[in-house]
Amino acid sequence: MGKGQETRERLLDIAELSVLAKGFGATSIEEIIAEAQITKSGFFYHFRDKNELARAILQRYLDREDGLLDELFDRARELHDDPLHAFLIGLKLLAEKMADLPNGHPGCMVAAYCYNERLFDPSVRSLNRTAVLGWRERFVAMLEEIAEVYPPRDDVDLQSVADMVSSTVDGGIILSKALGEPAVLSRQILLYRSYIKLLFSPTVN
Amino acid sequence: MGKGQETRERLLDIAELSVLAKGFGATSIEEIIAEAQITKSGFFYHFRDKNELARAILQRYLDREDGLLDELFDRARELHDDPLHAFLIGLKLLAEKMADLPNGHPGCMVAAYCYNERLFDPSVRSLNRTAVLGWRERFVAMLEEIAEVYPPRDDVDLQSVADMVSSTVDGGIILSKALGEPAVLSRQILLYRSYIKLLFSPTVN
DNA sequence: AATTTACTGTACTCGAGGTCAGGTTGGTTT
DNA sequence: AAACCAACCTGACCTCGAGTACAGTAAATT
Predict the structure, then answer these.
(1) Residue among A115, A126, A136, A139 with most chain B CBs within 10 A, to mutate
(2) Number of other residues whose CB lies within 10 A of the CB of residue B202
(3) Which among A7, B154, B188, B198 would be 20 to 30 A from A17, CA to CA?
């Protein structure tokens, strides 16, 4: 990574945390450059304007998140061949990952952007939307594979059950943040896991 | 309601929508007073500073929300005597209420404030926390009553199951907003309902 | 008549996003 | 070795709107 890339990443790191803590509108370039020890012109060398910063933050966040999900659910699939059990293992791994964050989850960028919607140009909004659709697709595929083997015990729409992963994580993050109890997030994920178990298990003990 | 109260409410209405759409930091007093057709000094007659506006918005939001929940779950209890069925009816009513919003849910103020945390003084943050604890208490009471009659079919922590109501709503709102699909929210609530059904129903068909 | 309520008008400061012209560094060509 | 050039910045500057202060005032209430 060249020196330029390094600076750019540093700016993104600082901006990302600020956006999650105060919102995009309240995140000032002034404050970013102060922390990054760079001048304003240096900043504008890396990002044409604030909206380009927004896009870069979100893009990087989404790439990392996708990478994490790939890693966890690929690993889960290695650990168990059955689609249901693999999914349950993946959720457990996810819950553990979330529980391991020392200061709690810093926040979901998708959620932060939803509550700053009006500040962004259409390209950013569409990026956000596409990301959530991607997660929907990812989990719907897993659920369909499960449903083929284990018929669901309630009449549910698998697409919504897939959305429920994102919903649970985003909702859990908010509760964790609001309560100041980081553990809440992983507990919510485990409850989703409990639902999946009840929904697909052929015999419930 | 006197003329002063009316103006105050109008200011809160405008500010509330803006906060949900752009975040508190990006919500400018200038823009609020332009829409409210009042001068800046008029605004500061009603609110000492921006933080007092924040507190007033949140307080009013929480009061309304509590009122809504009271209404729905009291009504549900009127419709059915059994605690489980009453809860399921309440959730159905909630899902219907959320589905009835013409332009989708405008957003949860608690969530918006979480992603603007650093902008508020401790009193506002504590107000937010207390609200979520209140919801936890409300639903934990219902769940305990249910669990006495219907032993849960999975080993879960009722407090977390109670939190899951808030988590589901907040998560659902985010997905709805991100996707531009208002229907997603009520579907998520119905999935939570499905979980409750599976978790407590003595015989699952 | 006095007081309170509900504002208006004016003025001030500061930080915000953004521009532009220039400068330094390290590598590449001639 | 000199010349060049692209990457990576710095410094000075500009404009605008934001939050705030405060003195004044018209109308309603007491």
Answers:
(1) A115
(2) 9
(3) B188
With CA atoms as reference, report the closest residue to A18 among A48, A57, A44.
A57
Rounded to a whole number of angstroms, the distance between the first and last alpha carbons of chain A is 54
Whole-angstrom Cα distance, residue A10 to residue A4?
10
Sequence letter at residue A153: R
Q: Which tokens hold the place of A193?
A: 């896991």
Distance of CA B197 to the CA centre of its chain: 23
CB within 8 Å of chain B, chain A residues 87-116: 107-108, 110-116
Find where tokens 């690929």 sit: A74
* CB within 8 Å: B154 and A116: no
- B129-136: long-range pairs with CB below 8 Å, 24+: B129/A178, B129/A179, B129/A180, B131/A178, B131/B58, B131/B62, B131/B65, B132/A175, B132/A178, B132/A179, B132/B163, B132/B166, B133/A179, B134/B66, B135/B69, B135/B162, B135/B163, B135/B165, B135/B166, B136/B162, B136/B163, B136/B166
Q: Is the CB of B115 under 7 A from strand C?
A: no
Q: What pTM did the predictor assign?
A: 0.94
Probe site for chain B from A167, A170, A195, A196 (most B CB atoms < 10 A): A167
Residues B47-96: tens digit of each pLDDT: 999 999 999 999 999 999 999 999 999 999 999 999 999 999 999 999 99
